[in-house]
UniProtKB/TrEMBL annotation:
It comes from the Eukaryota. GO terms for biological process: L-tryptophan catabolic process to kynurenine. InterPro entries: AB_hydrolase_3, AB_hydrolase_fold, GDXG_lipolytic_enzyme, KFase_ver/fungi-typ. Signal peptide: none annotated. PANTHER family: AB HYDROLASE SUPERFAMILY PROTEIN C4A8.06C, KYNURENINE FORMAMIDASE. It comes from Grus americana. One of its GO terms (molecular function) is arylformamidase activity. This is KFA formamidase. Residues 41-227 form the Alpha/beta hydrolase fold-3 domain. SUPFAM superfamilies: alpha/beta-Hydrolases. The keyword Cytoplasm applies. Keywords: Cytoplasm, Hydrolase, Nucleus, Tryptophan catabolism.
Length: 252
């Protein structure tokens, strides 16, 4: 239903391949009358790296597209087919693909929920020299994310992921915080009042680690929501984008 709704008033291209893998595809919702360039929200879905897909991610599109903002939902190979290293690589490649393929994009705003926030955070630590392109990431909204994978190793979540300690460490945003570049993006770390204590701890600690490395970080603690309905709350009224960059609302 989200996808159907999103198609109204948008130039929609579903299942655009950014690689050869079965799930290496994007759903692209661009404004129908983009006057030149436009900002884009790139949404990375959650589901503990093993369920959900980009197909449920079109819900953020209508209010944004109607205000001249493009929305792109990223697909990636979930477990057990997908390995953690591969998922991180896929999401990075999808951003490089967008930057090369769509020169009309003026600024990318990353948004990820839960496992998607983990993947978005890994994008922030990318060394783009290997990709031959530097996506213009202006902001990142990380919602109820996981930033340290080690505590997951001994839970049921790792049954499908099958991560070793090494894999968990090298894919933990907490351990990959790079010093902020001069034009580093704004980061909004959002957590729900009723997130578990572990989720809340990780959000606070990751936000502090980014700040210590010179990033511009806001921490948002949303009252009255839990791990799952926080993303619906954030997509209402394009809350996400109005929070992210001062320059963005004025440019609609």
């Amino acid at each position: 239903a989200g996808t159907q709704r999103a198609r109204a008033g948008a130039q929609t291209s579903l299942h655009v391949p950014y690689g050869d893998g079965e799930r290496e595809k994007l759903d692209v919702y661009f404004p129908t009358d983009p006057s030149g360039t436009f900002p884009v929200l790139v949404y990375i879905h959650g589901g503990y790296w093993q369920c959900l897909s980009k197909d449920e991610s079109g819900f953020a599109a209508p209010p944004l597209v109607s205000r001249g903002v493009g929305v792109v939902a990223v697909g990636y190979d979930t477990a057990p087919e997908g390995h953690m290293d591969a998922m991180v690589l896929q999401v990075r490649r999808s951003l490089a693909f967008l930057a090369q393929q769509y020169p009309g994009i003026r600024g990318i705003y990353l948004c990820g929920h839960s496992a998607g926030a983990h993947l978005a955070a890994m994008v922030l630590s990318t060394d783009w020299t290997e990709y031959g392109v530097v996506p213009d990431i202006k902001g990142a909204v990380l919602v109820s994310g996981v930033y340290d994978l080690e505590p997951i190793l001994h839970t049921y979540v790792n049954d499908a992921l099958n991560m070793s300690r090494e894999v968990a460490r090298r894919n933990s945003p907490m351990l990959c915080v790079s010093p902020a570049a001069p034009a580093a993006c704004e980061v909004l770390v959002a957590m729900a009042q009723h997130d578990s204590p572990e989720f809340r701890r990780q959000s606070q600690e990751y936000g502090q680690a980014l700040r210590a490395a010179g990033w511009s970080v806001s921490l948002l603690d949303l009252a009255g929501v839990d791990h799952f309905d926080i993303i619906e709350k954030l997509s209402e009224e394009s809350f996400v984008l109005t929070q992210v960059g001062e320059e963005l609302p004025s440019s609609f």
